[in-house]
Amino acid sequence: MAKESLSEFQTQGTRVSIITLVSNISLCIIKLTGGILSGSSALISDGINSASDVLSTLLVLLGISLSSKKSDKDHAYGHERLECIVAIILAVMIFGSGLLAGYSAIEKLKAREALTSPSILAIIAALVSILIKLVLYFYASRVGKKINSSVIMASALDHKSDVIGTSGTLAALIGAKAGLAILDPIASLLICLFVCRTGITIFKDATGRLTDKACSPEKEEQIRSIILQTEGVKRIDVLQTRLFGSRIYVDTEISADPELPLEQSHAIAEKVHLSIEQSDPEIKHCMVHVNPYHPLEN
Q: What φ, ψ does residue 253 adopt, rounded to 5°?
């Protein structure tokens, strides 16, 4: 996969966000209209969630714009971490919207108010929402993985959560139509749990990227293999990786023959440096230090 430039990252991310924004506005109108006309608390909760999605998408656009800025004097390592900060704000908003939906459902259960006879309009609204969100999930997930964007992947997870939640709404509407009216507020409560879980997942991923979390063991083993295959490398003394927003930084210390001239030792380090950076488009920078090789004491 070719390394994405900042302009490509911003272009693809912005395209996904604009499509998502238009879709969420449309879904918000469809759900709230269907929920109000049918009296479905589950569908209204879904509509509120879509309304929060509109604001969330605006945050995604902001995150993409900020993180795509080039390095400057005050930010020599770039601005990728700004995307993680936006993802954390997005996670909190998603979690909050889930709590709001849950509170509304509990109040309705206490009052023993439920949908008695949902209209076909409410069921159609739920079906349309599921289909649109499925398309958005697969689209955002594909682009998010391609450009390695935490905020786009967060948006994709939000779409997935909406699919699950709205499926519960649809089941409740059908159940209420069959006379099981209590299913409506129960479905609304379940939607709350799914939405809150999504918020927690996004929060954990974003904070990991913001606090120099190491790469996966599989990724580090791949890097280790590349280093050891480089001619002149006797041993790996230190290998450290860290996630920096949507990119990876690698720091390593290798051992080489102590009798080699400085220029040859430097050439080995440079070869390791280039091999690692060219092996994966997510790796932004690799720092290599060369130590004189001495057999390890038992």
A: -120, 130
59 versus 32: which is more confidently predicted? 32
Distance CA 34, CA 130 (A): 14
Is pLDDT of 115 > 60?
Answer: no
Closest CA to 21 of 47, 64, 53, 63: 53
**Residue 120, pLDDT score:** 76
**Listed range (32-36, 74-78, 170-174) with the worst mean pLDDT:** 74-78
> Kindly report the CA angle at 48 between 43 and 49, in degrees rounded to 5?
95
Measured CA distances, 195 to 45, 92, 189, 225 (Å): 11, 11, 10, 40
CA diameter of the chain: 86
Which residues are bridge partners to 235 per DSSP? 255
Domain 217-292 top-level CATH class: alpha beta
Residue 121 has pLDDT above 70, yes or no: yes
What pTM was estimated for this model as a whole? 0.59
pLDDT in tens, 216-262: 889 899 999 999 999 999 999 999 998 876 678 899 999 999 999 99
Q: Where are the domains of the chain?
A: 6-210, 217-292
Strand order in the sheet with 247-256: 235-244, 247-256, 283-292
- Residues 6 or more apart from 51 whose CB is under 8 A from it? 28, 32
In the chain, the N- to C-terminal Cα span, in Å, equals 43
Please report the pLDDT score of residue 172 as a whole number. Answer: 73
Residues in the chain: 298
What are the Cα distances from residue 185, in Å, to 25, 85, 101, 166, 177? Answer: 24, 34, 10, 13, 14
6-210 architecture in CATH?
Answer: Up-down Bundle (1.20)
Residue with tokens 């998603």: 94
